[in-house]
Specification:
By secondary structure, the chain is α+β, with helices and mostly antiparallel strands. It has 4 helices and 6 strands, in the order αββαββββαα. It has a domain of 116 residues: Umud Fragment, subunit A (Ribbon). It has a 6-stranded antiparallel β-sheet. The chain is elongated, with a radius of gyration of 25 Å.
Length: 191
C-alpha cells in the first residue's frame, strides 16, 4: 500500500510540474502568448478554461494561414481589447486582398470575414483547464507567483534528494513490507 502511495504521489507531482512548465514557462521562453478560453464557442476541441498557447505572427505570416487553422484575432480592426479564437473555415483572395472567414467549432454561424491585420496569432496547442489557474492569478503579482512556484519546486527537489541520502545512510534501501515479495529468504551456500 505504501508503494502505491509513493507511485501515485510521484505521478501527481510529475503531472503538476509538466502542467506548470507547459502553461507558464515554455510559452514565455519561446515568445508565445498564453490565453484563457472564456467561452464555449470552441467546445469539442477546446473547452472553457483551457489555456491556448498562441504564436504571434508577423505580417507576412498572417497571409499564409489556411482553412483549419485556429487563430486568435481582433473581431473589430480598431478594438484591440478583445480577442477571439476561432477556426478559419474559408480563405478568399481578391487581387492582393485576403479575407479569412472564421467560426467557432460549437457555433452555427460564421463570423464576419477578417483581414490578416486583425490576426494576432495562430493557436499552437492548449493545456486543458490551466486557464483557470492563470485567471486566478490575474489579480496577483505574477512575478511573485512564479517565484513561489520556483522555490516550491526547488524545495521539493532538495527534500527528495536529502531524504534519499539519509535513507541510504541509515542502512540501505528501505524495504516495503507491504509488497508481496518483501520476505527475505536467507539461503545457505550449500543450497
Amino acid at each position: 500500500m505504501r508503494r502505491i502511495s509513493k507511485i501515485l504521489y510521484t505521478l501527481i507531482m510529475t503531472a503538476l510540474i509538466v502542467v506548470i512548465l507547459a502553461a507558464a514557462l515554455i510559452p514565455r521562453v519561446l515568445g508565445l502568448v498564453p490565453l484563457t478560453l472564456v467561452s464555449g464557442s470552441m467546445e469539442g476541441k477546446y473547452s472553457t478554461g483551457d489555456l491556448l498557447v498562441v504564436n504571434p505572427l508577423e505580417d507576412a505570416e498572417k497571409e499564409t494561414l489556411h482553412v483549419g487553422d485556429v487563430v486568435s484575432f481582433y473581431p473589430t480592426p480598431n478594438d484591440i481589447s478583445n480577442l477571439t479564437s476561432h477556426r478559419i473555415i474559408d480563405v478568399t483572395t481578391t487581387g492582393d486582398d485576403i479575407l479569412y472567414t472564421t467560426k467557432g467549432d460549437a457555433t452555427d454561424s460564421a463570423d464576419k470575414p477578417i483581414k490578416p491585420v486583425q490576426v494576432a496569432g495562430k493557436v499552437l496547442y492548449h493545456v486543458p483547464f490551466a486557464g483557470y489557474a492563470v485567471q486566478a492569478t490575474d489579480d496577483l503579482d505574477r512575478t511573485l507567483v512564479s517565484q513561489v512556484i520556483g522555490v516550491g519546486l526547488i524545495a521539493f527537489a532538495a527534500f527528495s534528494t536529502c531524504s534519499a541520502f539519509f535513507r541510504r545512510k541509515k542502512g540501505g534501501a528501505e524495504v516495503d513490507t507491504d509488497a508481496p515479495d518483501a520476505e527475505v529468504n536467507a539461503m545457505s551456500p550449500s543450497e
